[in-house]
Amino acid sequence: MRLKRPLSVVLARQLMKPVFPAIILLTFLVIATGLKLGLDSEEDAQIRQTLASDTDSLVRQLEQDFLNHLIALRRMADRLALQPDMPQAVWREDARNYLQDFQTFQAIEWIDRHFVIRWLEPVEGNADALGYNVAFSEERREELERARQLGRLDISGVINLTQGGTGLVAYAPVGSGADNRGFIAGVFRMEKLADALIAPRVHGNFSLALIEDGEVAFSLPARTATNTDFSHTTAANLPTVQWSLRAVPTNEWIDQYRSNWPWATFISMVALGLLVSLSTLLAQVVLKRNQALLRTRQDLEEEIDQRIAVQQDLAHLKSTDPLTGLANRRFFMEDLEHTLLQAERQMRQVGLIMMDLDRFQMLNDSLGHQFGDELLVMVSERLNRLSDERVMVGYSGGDEFMICQQHVEDIDDVINLLGQIKACFAEPFEIDNEKHHVTATMGVAVYPQSGMDADILLRNADIALYRAKEQGRNTYQFYTEGMQEREVRRLELDHDLSEALARNQFELYFQPQLDLVTSRACSVEALIRWNHPQRGLVPPVEFIPLAEESGRITEIGRWVIRAACQQIRKWRGTPLENMRIAINLSGRELGEADLTDYLARCFREFSVEPQQLEIELTEQTFIENVEHNHQQMRRISDLGVHLAIDDFGVGYSSLGYLRDFTVDLLKIDRSFITDVAERHDDAVITRAVINLAHNLGIRVVAEGVETEQQLLFLKQHHCDMAQGYYMSRPVPAGDLPAVIARGLLPVRSA
């Protein structure tokens, strides 16, 4: 009698058949296809929803902007109604102001009671419209009569303009009923209206059609091909006209909302199915190779035992830093050497990351060493959460940390770890009930590409760290060939910086500041230059960061104060004797407790009035360590020294410190002045800053003035002073009297 095999044995035999992996792969393929189709459908729905939202938002913004133009016309009509005897010249000046403020208008017209255009501005390009009867049809006459009787706005819809092209006209009645004196009309050319109100918002992402009475009245094509499978139409709520805006997106816009998830899911599921199938095949092979597996396990246990033995030995060498609880430098380096030996045998890569905290020295100096120690402990706790069998975190000293990553398969493994490290600094650190946002800069070296032993790898990671600092901090940089040579040059320049202080190789250049009321120079800004014996004139951007890193920035700042006082004394008895000099101070210099004493000593030594010196500080400096800075600047102000906020508008621009700090001058950042005569937003911001400062009793300087149009704008809006290449570049002290004598404004030939 034949015995029945156990079910487990039968099942095991079936699983071992070669067709079973193929069935697994086919199952995963079907699942992957279904998931991809579902994700594609969900993406299409999301794109249509986003398109509808963008189109609705565009229409709402278009309504608001267009209504603002109509309100402006209504305001001008009301003014004419109140002043019926307004001279034509006054009306034209008023119209030009509106044209300047609302640059969307093609022209502004006054239409008399007989519907004839009598005045218009500008005449150039619109002269053909003078004397034209706007009631060109019985329908238009009825609509205008109704608007005149009711005193309400009327919009013509899209029409052919007398001066050429298509556009629309908005009519604001001057009075109503029997008191009506005609209309103030705003003429919009459709192309200009689209360029001003629509084009800046769509950035070429849509093909737009303006629909009036069911017909396309105006269209704005996209720069690239559109996808007609997606479109959305939204009605606009405007007086007397029925408009709808239809948006058809470009393929590029749609691609922004397409993700790789459908294909990634499909490929992942197929890959997973393939992996499971291959795993099944491999399992069949592995079952036949039990002895090889046992030998591998024995080798692994021996390696683990060796690792434990090494860790126990190093623990006796005081391997842990007492403050942070992390591995100290000695332990870390010995472990790194052992890791590199293992990596060499296994032909694997190892990543070494050097990290230090940004601006730690400044925080430590200003808030105390106890604060610095607590911050280091908190950072160590967060970093230590990354430690596992592949990642080791160590403390090098100061504000530097070391992270070693073993078994690196691909550079993406290191980049992923860098992201985890940055995430450790996402939340602020709370110390003494105050939250402090701290960032970190990292340098990365990868074995074997960046070094074959621990010392070289560490040195190259340190070089990459300094390179990352030069690029702006709160970032990371991988070591590459050529960095070492750059680091040598940096160290040479750092060494030369010490020689420069000892040998007095610095020089002050001066850039005049023009008083816009008197058109004369009233003050100058002192800008430091380094006369290097081999490299020539070195600009501040190359050596000031080095000085801040090394702590020499304080010595340089003291040199600048002393040199400025010496220059004021040299000008005594000359036409420049009343000139005020503005100098820049860093946050570290402001944090020096004896700064005011040093200023007072210099004033006494050179017999200089404190009012002839002005200190410029950036917005960032104002808000760092607010309590200490407030006291320090009050002491400086009490000496009689002027205080100025430099680069105003690009930092926090908090009104609180304008109220709480003693500030004499605001310097508007050059980024707002560059396009102030062309960009409406920059013009509005600049006017607002000037008005705000004047209301607070603060004078205003505009930096970066390079054109006549910029200067005229600043004069028209009552800016106090201007500084920039249009008046004068920075010049040595010996050239300044000639520059001042010939005048700062260029002479225009007739």
UniProtKB/TrEMBL annotation:
Keywords: Membrane, Transmembrane, Transmembrane helix. Residues 112-197 form the CHASE domain. Residues 490-744 form the EAL domain. It is found in: Membrane. SMART domains: CHASE (SM01079), EAL (SM00052), GGDEF (SM00267). Its main location: membrane. Residues 348-481 form the GGDEF domain. The chain crosses the membrane at residues 261-287. PANTHER family: BIOFILM ARCHITECTURE MAINTENANCE PROTEIN MBAA, DIGUANYLATE CYCLASE DGCP. This is Diguanylate cyclase (GGDEF) domain-containing protein.
